[in-house]
Design brief:
The protein has 17 helices and 25 strands. The chain is of the alpha/beta class and about 500 residues long. The longest helix has 19 residues.
Length: about 500
C-alpha cells in the first residue's frame, strides 16, 4: 500500500501500530481525528489499549487524556475505555463503554461546544498536546495529507501537537481528494479576521492538510472501514414530528420570512432528521442547501435527486450501504459536498450570517422552554452537547424535537423543570413532539407554558403538567416564571423511586 505514501522521506516512517503505540507515555495528551464514527484512527488506539492493559497488569499507572472531534468508535473510545486508559476526555461522545466510565467516575469528561473545542486547544487552555493521531487517504509527494471521511479537529491538533502519527487507510476512497476545504486563517485575539463565507458552497481553504514533516513520528498503514451502522427504519412518531417541522417551514415561507428554497439546513443524526430529509425528498422543493455537521444518507438521496445543490459539513455519518456508495462515487459527490474543520462548520459567525435553519434532538424540555439534551435524570451523561448549542443560539430558526415520552411511556419529555440545562429558554424557538408544535418566539414564560403543555405533552401527562402550572401560578409569589421549587423535580425523583413519572 505504500503507493498511497508518495513522499519518500515519510515512507521511511512506516511502522506497526504496536511500535507507534510504544512512543506514547503515561499522562500524554492525544488529539485523535474522527467525528461521528468517520475518519478516526483504526489501528493505533487498539495497540495503545493493549500497551495500557499490560502496564496495568504490572501494577503501573498508565492513562492518557483524549481530545477528539466528536464521537469516534469502539476501536478508539471503546478500546481505551475498556482498559481504563482514559483519564480525561472531550468534547462529544457516543460510545457506550466510554459513557459508562464517565458515569461511574473512572474518567473525567469535559462537555464543550464543538465550535469551541478546537479554539480552546489553540488557546492553550488544556495544556500541551503531545500527539495528534489522524487518518489520511493518501500523502502527496510534497508531504501534504489528503484526509478521509471527516475533518473535525484534525487541523488544530496537527498545528499544536509536538508529534504526529498518521494512519493511511486504503479502505477510504482516493477520490475524496478535492472534497475537503481546510481553512488555515485562524488566529488568536486580537488578530482574528472575519470568516469569508457568505454561501454554503464557498471554498476558502486548501484541499490538503499541510503538516510539518519533522513532526511526523510514525505512519501506520491500515485498511479498515468506518463505524458505519444501519439507520433504524423511520417510525410513526418520527414521521409525525417531521411533518410538523416541514409544515412549519412551509408556513414560514408563506409568511415571507424565508425563501421558497428555505435557508441552509442543519440537522442532527437519527430517525427524526432522516424523516425530515425523506419529507424534503418527496416535496416540491428544489435548490436546497445545507450547512451542518454531518452528511447523512438522506442528504445523499437529495443530491442524487437534484434537489440539494450543496452540503457543507465536517464529516459523514452514513450507513454501510451509503458509505460504499460514497467510496464508489466520491468523484461525483465532491462537486456537491464540502468537508470543513469543525471550527468552520460550527462557527457561530458563519451560522448567523447564513441564516441557518436548525433542528436538534433533546432529552427533555420544561414548560418554559429550557432544554436538556445531555443528561438523563440530571446526572447520567448520554452523549454531550455536540454542536447543538452553536446552531441553536445562532440559527435563524432553531427547533428542538423529541417524542413526547420515553421508556415505554414512563418518562415524559415535557417536565415542570428540566433536570439539567443545556439550552436556556432564551435560545430555543420551537419545540416539536409527535403531539404537535409550540412556536415560542416572542412569548413570555407564562405564555409559553400553556402552549408547550397543550401542544407538545403526551395526553397521559398533560393534566399533571397543567395542574403543576396552575398551582405554581397561584401559589408562587413571583409571577414571571412561576415554580413550586419543592416540587419542580418531583417527577424525576418519582421515576427514580418507582420507575415511572406517572402518579399512582
Amino acid at each position: 500500500m505504500s503507493e498511497r505514501i508518495a513522499n519518500a522521506a515519510l515512507r521511511q516512517k512506516v511502522m506497526s501500530a504496536d511500535d507507534a503505540a510504544a512512543l506514547i507515555n503515561d499522562g500524554d495528551q492525544i488529539g485523535f481525528g474522527g467525528f461521528t464514527g468517520s475518519g478516526y484512527p483504526k489501528a493505533l488506539p487498539g495497540a495503545l489499549a493493549k500497551r495500557i492493559k499490560e502496564s496495568h497488569d504490572r501494577g503501573e499507572k498508565f492513562t492518557v487524556n483524549v481530545f477528539t472531534g466528536a464521537s469516534t468508535a469502539p476501536e478508539l473510545d471503546g478500546a481505551l475505555a475498556s482498559v481504563d486508559g482514559i483519564g480525561w476526555r472531550m468534547p462529544y461522545l457516543s460510545d457506550p463503554q466510554m459513557r459508562g466510565k464517565i458515569n461511574d467516575g473512572t474518567s473525567y469528561y469535559t462537555d464543550i461546544h464543538l465550535s469551541e473545542s478546537g479554539m480552546m486547544v489553540r488557546q492553550g487552555f488544556f495544556g500541551k498536546v503531545d500527539y495528534a493521531v489522524i487518518e489520511a487517504t493518501r500523502i502527496t509527494e510534497d508531504g501534504d495529507v489528503v484526509l478521509t471521511s471527516s475533518v473535525g479537529n484534525n487541523a488544530v491538533y496537527c498545528d499544536v501537537a509536538d508529534k504526529l502519527i498518521i494512519e493511511v487507510n486504503s479502505w477510504q476512497s482516493e477520490d475524496l481528494e478535492g472534497m475537503h476545504d481546510i481553512y488555515g486563517g485562524f488566529a488568536l485575539p486580537p488578530n482574528r479576521v472575519p470568516i469569508p463565507i457568505t454561501h454554503p458552497g464557498d471554498r476558502i481553504g486548501d484541499k490538503f492538510l499541510h503538516v510539518p514533516q519533522n513532526k511526523v513520528a510514525a505512519i501506520i498503514e491500515t485498511d479498515g472501514p468506518d463505524r458505519n451502522t444501519p439507520f433504524k427504519p423511520i417510525d410513526d412518531d418520527s414521521r409525525k414530528i417531521a411533518g410538523f417541522l416541514l409544515d412549519f417551514y412551509d408556513h414560514e415561507v408563506k409568511q415571507g420570512r424565508i425563501p421558497k428554497n428555505l435557508l441552509p439546513l442543519q440537522s442532527g443524526v437519527g430517525n427524526i432528521p432522516n424523516a425530515v430529509l425523506d419529507g424534503l425528498l418527496h416535496s416540491d422543493l428544489e435548490h436546497l442547501t445545507s450547512y451542518t455537521e454531518v452528511i447523512q444518507d438522506g442528504m445523499i438521496d437529495l443530491i442524487d435527486a437534484g434537489k440539494l445543490d450543496v452540503a457543507s459539513a465536517t464529516a459523514f455519518s452514513l450507513s454501510p450501504e451509503y458509505a460504499h456508495k460514497m467510496n464508489e462515487n466520491a468523484a461525483f459527490y465532491r462537486d456537491h459536498i464540502i468537508l470543513r474543520p469543525q471550527e468552520i462548520s460550527n462557527h457561530p459567525e458563519v451560522i448567523r450570517r447564513l441564516g441557518v435553519i436548525g433542528a436538534n434532538g433533546m432529552i427533555e424540555a420544561d414548560i418554559y422552554g429550557n432544554v436538556n439534551s445531555t443528561h438523563v435524570m440530571g446526572s447520567r451523561m448520554m452523549n454531550g452537547i455536540g454542536g447543538s448549542g452553536a446552531f441553536t443560539r445562532n440559527a435563524y430558526i432553531s427547533a428542538f424535537v423529541s417524542p413526547s415520552t420515553a421508556n415505554g411511556g414512563a418518562i415524559s419529555a415535557i417536565v415542570p423543570m428540566v433536570s439539567h440545562v443545556d439550552h436556556t429558554e432564551h435560545d430555543g424557538m420551537v419545540i416539536i413532539t409527535e403531539q404537535g408544535i409550540a412556536d415560542l418566539r416572542g412569548l413570555a414564560p407564562r405564555q409559553r407554558a400553556p402552549k408547550i403543555i397543550e401542544n407538545c405533552a403526551h395526553p397521559d401527562y398533560r393534566p399533571m403538567l397543567m395542574d403543576y402550572y396552575e398551582r405554581a401560578l397561584r401559589d408562587c409569589k413571583f409571577k414571571h416564571t412561576p415554580h413550586l421549587l419543592g416540587e419542580a423535580y418531583s417527577w424525576h425523583t418519582r421515576f427514580l423511586e418507582t420507575g415511572t413519572m406517572k402518579e399512582s
